[in-house]
Write a structure and sequence with these properties.
Layout: E1 6-9, H1 11-15, H2 25-37, E2 42-46, H3 52-64, E3 69-75, H4 78-87, E4 94-101, H5 104-111, H6 115-129, E5 136-141, H7 148-161, E6 165-170, H8 177-190, E7 198-203, H9 210-219, E8 224-227, H10 241-250, H11 266-277, H12 298-306, E9 326-328, H13 334-343, H14 351-367, E10 371-372, H15 373-386, E11 391-399, E12 406-414, E13 417-425, H16 428-440, E14 445-453, E15 462-470, E16 473-481, H17 484-500
Helix pairs in contact: 2-3, 2-11, 3-4, 4-6, 6-7, 8-9, 14-15, 16-17
This protein binds 3-methyl-2-oxobutanoic acid (KIV) and zinc ion.
Length: 510
């Protein structure tokens, strides 16, 4: 058995199915670039038939990313497979992931099909997908609650039809680790042509067992794990990539395989996904939570100072934590700025965008003496966002006084024209948003508003995330500034800009 564990990241597909986690094409490309740098093997970029936006995102990721296999999901239907094949045309290496449900409850109640009909449809889908690429993944959806004899039959038939990866999803997060591991082992032993495919685990976290189930599958022969950054995904989410990768790497005494992942990229990926989706990482989250390497108890601190391994099983820097290293200051030059961002994986597509980012850096350095890597990343994200916006913030003046109403006077540039408005309400943020609403004239429902600090201290950049709903469509907006009211205004405007872009069709139900 191979000692390589394939990491299949589905942040851009299953992760995006999480309510409120929708991403634009540009955001997907930014995340895909970090995943590529992290050396993820397969990136599931979306569900090409779901909407025009999904199709274009899969296509854009396929055209941009060259060092990972790009995958699109497709139901076991001709039209889905053709759409996936079309979207993946530009990829260096492409995969079609087709699926159909195999549990009794799904076949009877959802599909209203017999097991034989399901098997025939799965085989037909794999054969059709083979016209587009040799790399075909088949998933018997809800395998975790499917009859094992039927699973053996459909897996054997789909491998004969050309499937090269067989993914076993615990779609509803129902399995226990010992049980999921036993199923994986039994399927690999019982399916006569199992040696012609790689077996994979796709676990949901409804009972908090997604990572445990995935690891149990690996111990029992799976050589691919499907996971997402920060465990994002439907309902309680998927297996967290960072936890799977670090568990396998840290416990090489237990696992006889390892992934190719460059773990030092994990933290940047986690921060980017959190900022794009507005899903904040809990402080005590394993690997990427703010407290994951913090020692509060005196006895622990004492132990770590004497010998780190007394209380630390992993090195923070191996995951990309750099303990807030001071990187630059007001006097740093353009070349040092460019070089440091290069080390952080940020490249500029033109001299103009480098100059713009450097100008922002100088402005920030005037307000904030110490600039950390996190500040640079926030600053560049901001520059990338603003390039495409049709509404821009020109000026904002807010006044707050105890016992008085707050007021916000704002000037925006909307499609090239400057417009101003003033609003008076009980809060500074509320007044700012009301003034923006007056100018933009689009009715939105604010579903989430959160502020977090990018680094430590009262002069830190404040990052604001908003989630806006408009006619059933949900978008996220984010921005950072040393002034949190300005960051709030920019985040709100970022969300509004997304709403004003063409309305996308909804996902089909799966
Ligand atoms: O959870 C699931 O079953 C899925 C499939 C489409 C693989 O996401
Ligand atoms: Zn799933």
């Amino acid at each position: 058995m191979s000692n390589k564990l394939i990491i299949f990241d589905t942040t851009l597909r299953d992760g995006e199915q999480s309510p409120g986690a929708s991403m634009t094409k540009d955001e997907k490309i930014r995340i895909a670039k970090v995943l590529e740098k992290m050396r993820v093997d397969v990136i599931e970029a979306g569900f090409a038939i779901a909407s025009v936006g999904d199709f274009e995102a899969v296509q854009a990721v396929a055209n941009t990313i060259k060092d990972a296999t790009i995958c699109s999901l497709a139901r076991a239907l001709d039209k889905d497979i053709d759409r996936a094949g079309e979207a993946l045309k530009g990829a260096n290496s492409s995969r079609i992931h087709t699926f159909i449900a195999t549990s009794d409850i799904h076949m009877k109640m959802k599909l209203q099909m017999t097991p034989d009909q399901v098997l025939d449809q799965a085989v037909r889908a794999v054969k059709r997908a083979k016209q587009y690429t040799n790399d075909i993944e088949f998933s018997p959806e809800d395998a975790g609650r499917s009859d094992e004899d039927f699973l053996c039959r459909i897996i054997e038939a789909t491998i004969n039809a050309g499937a090269t990866t067989i993914n076993i999803p615990d779609t509803v997060g129902y399995n226990m680790p010992h049980q999921f591991g036993a199923t994986m082992k039994s399927l690999i032993e019982r399916v006569p042509n199992a040696d012609k495919a790689i077996f994979s685990a796709h676990c949901h976290n409804d009972l908090g067992l997604a990572v445990a189930n995935s690891l149990s599958a690996v111990l029992n022969g799976a050589r691919q794990v499907e996971c997402t950054i920060n465990g994002l995904g439907e309902r309680a989410g998927n297996s967290a990539l960072e936890e799977v990768v670090m568990a396998v790497r840290t416990r090489q005494d237990v696992f006889d395989c390892d992934s190719n992942i460059d773990a030092t990229q994990i933290l940047s990926a986690s921060r980017l996904v959190s900022s794009v989706t507005g899903f904040i990482v809990q402080p005590n989250k394993a690997i990427v939570g703010a407290n994951a390497f913090a020692h509060e108890a005196g006895i622990h601190q004492d132990g770590v100072l004497k010998h780190r391994e007394t209380y630390e099983i992993m090195r923070a820097e191996d995951i990309g934590w750099n303990t807030n290293k001071l990187v630059m200051g007001k006097h740093s030059g353009r070349n040092a700025f460019k070089a440091r961002l290069g080390e952080l994986g940020v490249e500029f597509d033109s001299e103009a965008s480098l100059n713009d980012a450097f100008r922002r850096f100088k402005e920030l350095a005037d307000k904030k003496h110490q600039i950390f890597d996190e500040d640079l990343q926030a600053l560049v994200s901001e520059a990338q966002i603003e390039t495409h916006e049709s509404i821009c913030l020109v000026a904002l003046k807010v006044s707050s006084e105890t016992g008085e109403q707050n007021s916000a006077a704002i000037t925006l540039r909307i499609d090239g024209k400057e417009k101003s408005a003033i609003a008076h309400t009980s809060g500074a943020v509320d007044a700012t948003f009301s003034a923006i609403n007056t100018l933009v004239g689009v009715k939105v429902n604010l579903q989430l508003y959160s502020v977090s600090n990018v680094t430590q201290g009262t002069d830190a950049l404040g990052e604001v995330n908003v989630r806006l709903e408009h006619n059933g469509r949900i978008v996220n907006g984010q921005a950072a500034d040393t002034d949190i009211i300005i960051a709030s205004a920019k985040a709100y405007i970022h969300g509004l800009n997304k709403i004003l872009i063409a309305v996308d069709k909804p996902h089909p139900q799966i």
